[in-house]
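Researcher: Good morning. I'm working through a list of sequences from a screen, and I'd like to move beyond sequence-only analysis. For each chain I'm collecting a predicted structure so we can compare shapes side by side. This is the next one on the list. No need for commentary yet; just the structure.
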Amino acid sequence: MFNMMNEDLARAQMAARLGEAHQLREAAQVARARRLSRKAERAAQQARLALARAL
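Model: Good morning. Structure tokens for this chain:
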């Protein structure tokens, strides 16, 4: 019975660590997407400026 409790505890801890790792990956993905979005917006702004100067 004590062995079963240890296994359950280990399983719960592993599930918690996996959940935390998943959240960290999602947060990193969101941060990366935000950076790319800002970079794309800056590039679009630069293109608009270049076009305006060319006219």
